[in-house]
Every structure is written in structure tokens, then in C-alpha cells.
Amino acid sequence: MNTNTTLGRGVAMKAVIQDSYGTSEVLRVGDVNIPEPGDNEVLVKVHAAGLDRGTEHLMTGKPYVVRMATGLRRPKQPTSGRDVAGTVVKVGSAVTRFAPGDEVYGVAPGSFAEYAVGPENKLARKPANLTFAQAAAVPISAGTALQALRDVGKVRAGQTVLVIGASGGVGSYAVQLAKVFGAQVTGVASAAKADFVTSLGADHVLDYGRDDFADGTRTYDLILDIGGGSSLKRLRRALKPRGTVVFVGSENAGSITGMGRQLRGALLSLLVRQRLAILMARERASDLEQLTEHLEAGRVIPSLADNYPLDQARTAMELLESGKVRGKVVIIPLDTDAEEDGTR
Predict the structure, then answer these.
(1) Is pLDDT of 297 > 90?
(2) Does the structure show a pLDDT above 50 at 343?
(3) 262 with 157, same domain?
(4) What GO molecular functions are on record for this protein (predicted)?
(5) Has residue 285 been placed in a domain?
């Protein structure tokens, strides 16, 4: 194994830990051993870690079906976090794309810590024009938006796209990427966030508290339903006769599978001309590399709501739970020098 580092086995680090499922109250900062990378893994010194809805689901253990993979009674992975940006300090014996000293971003389970291990195939070189904090706000949310538009939605230039939940982590990237693909974009958000969605490049913004996107005034080629709870009837009413709805996320969709409405939509899709599809997002380096091109060209810009030190991760999660976040929240490890690492 190529180490090029003084770190050894059994060395402790600070991390955000949860010993049970629940709200943000289950999060605490404690000491754990620095993880060792496997053959195809990379050990990263974490400079910043993004907070996404997936991390919240892993924290609450809901929908309950996620516990089949994460632990029935308590989390198998007690350290929180997934999005990461930092510097490689150790690589596994089979790793060929990275070496100690490389600046990377991507996915590393347990990233709310001073160090985290990530698979080589879920990491990419950090965009040169981004700070670590900006880069940490990208991987999962932007990758999900990219796959929803490109792979499932099959978006094309000139199409009309409706993004429900346009001010959130995935939504903020979906608006920008849809514009990159040449679509005309309408975003749905609260009135307080309308200016933010407009700043992302949306052509039109609807206030979900006042405007009804399904009133028949306008129909869309593609609808991204991001964490929404609209009925299938309303979604279809806003969709063109051969349009597509892509279900992204599972908020407000039940505690058991979180997929009841989506599954009904997929079944209905077999009987009608409209297409109602479920996104099963995958985390992969190839998507990060495509996103890097857009980020370095300035076509896509990360939207940072705020950043918090490691010992305030609970506060950051509470902000996400409140639904008041514009874009993404980022966690900064306690021992990271903000000026040196360019996180602020």
C-alpha cells in the first residue's frame, strides 16, 4: 500500500457519530479511529463535507426499507456524512487514478470527520476553480440532478422542464443543468426563495403557496418531482401527452418504503402514453468528471447556504430538517484551517 503519510493504525480523530436512529438529537461529536482504505479505496483528509437529504434518511432510518442495508436497529456505519472534498493521504494497492496530495471530491461514507475513506470509482479531481467547501456541495446532489435530466428524463434542447423543489440541493443543480442542456426551465419554490431560483437561471418561478403548476395554463415536456408530494393526477395534468415525470427522492411518500406514489406512477406508466419514471441514482466518478467540465467553465455554480464546524453538525442538520435551506449546507472539520484550505 502506498502511504506517504505518518498516520498509523489506531490513531484517533474527531467525527460526528450516531448510535441510534432519530432526529438530529442523535448526533454527537466523538473520537473514532482513522479508517484504513481497502485495495480500491482512498483515505481523504476531509476539508469539507456536504449535507444532503440522503444523509438525513440515514440518520432517521426512514423510510424503514433503508434499514435493510444500513442496520435494522442501529446504523452499521456510525459516522455520518457522504459528500466529501479534501486531500488524498493514502491509497489502496489497486488504486491507479490518485496519489497522496491529490485534491479530490466525491463520495466517502463517514465524511463528517477529519478523515474518511471513499471508493476510487466515486471520486474525481476537485475542480480547480472551486474551494473545498464549494466542491463538497456538489457530488451527490449535482450527480442526482444530472442523472434525472440526462439518463431518465432524456432532456433535449428546446424542451420545457418543470423543477418541483427548485431551491434545494438537487433542485438548484437541476435548474442550472437543464439550462445547460438548452431547456426552458420553470422552478417551483416558496415565495421567499423565488429570487434565489431566478438567480440560478430559471426562466419562470412559481410560488408553491400561491401558484398551481397543474392549473392547465402550461404543460411541460419533463417534470422533475424532487421530494414532492403532488398527486399523480396533478402531475399528469401538468405534463404534455407524451411527456415524462421523473420521481427524485422520497419525501412525504410514506415511512415504510417511501416509494408508494412512485411505484403507482411506474405501474400507471405502462397503461398511458405519458411516462412516469423512478430515478435510482448511482454515485460514479464519470458523472463527477462531466460535472467538473461545467463547473470549471462556470456553467454550473454551487450554491452554499452556509458552513458549520464539525461540532455544530446537529445545528446544520436542524436547518436542513426545517426546509429553509437555499442550496447546500457544508460541514468543516474542527482541525481544518479555513484560510489554508480555502473553505471561507
Answers:
(1) yes
(2) no
(3) yes
(4) oxidoreductase activity; zinc ion binding
(5) no
pLDDT at 2 > cutoff 60: no
Cβ-Cβ contacts under 8 Å for 310 (sequence gap 6 or more): 14, 15, 16, 29, 112, 113, 114, 331, 332, 333, 334
What is the rounded CA–CA span in Å between residue 278 and residue 62? Answer: 18
* Model confidence band, residue 9 (pLDDT cutoffs 50, 70, 90): low
**DSSP string over 235-247:** HHHTEEEEEEEEE
CATH code: domain of residue 256: 3.90.180.10
- H/E element, 29: strand 27-33
316 inside domain? yes
Mean local confidence (pLDDT), 145-152: 98
Cis bond upstream, residue 139 (ω within 30): no
User: Crossing angle for the helix pair 139-146 and 169-180, nearest 10 degrees?
Assistant: 50
Taking alpha carbons only, the member of 251, 255, 254 closest to residue 67 is 255
- Domain count for the chain: 2
3-state secondary structure the chain: CECCCCCCCCCEEEEEEECCCCCHHHEEEEEEECCCCCCCEEEEEEEEEEECHHHHHHHHCCCHHHHHHHCCCCCCCCECCCEEEEEEEEECCCCCCCCCCCEEEEECCCCCECEEEEEHHHEEECCCCCCHHHHHCCHHHHHHHHHHHHHHCCCCCCCEEEEECCCCHHHHHHHHHHHHCCCEEEEEECHHHHHHHHHCCCCEEEECCCCCCCCCCCCEEEEEEECCCCCHHHHHHCEEEEEEEEEECCCCCCCCCCCHHHHHHHHHHCCCCCEEEECCCCCCHHHHHHHHHHHHCCCCCCCEEEEEEHHHHHHHHHHHHHCCCCCEEEEECCCCCHHHHCCC
User: Which are the contacts of 270, defined by CB distance < 8 A and separation ≥ 6?
Assistant: none
Q: Which residues contact 220 (CB under 8 A, 6 or more apart)?
A: 160, 161, 162, 186, 238, 239, 240, 243
Average pLDDT rounded to a whole number, residues 311-335: 85
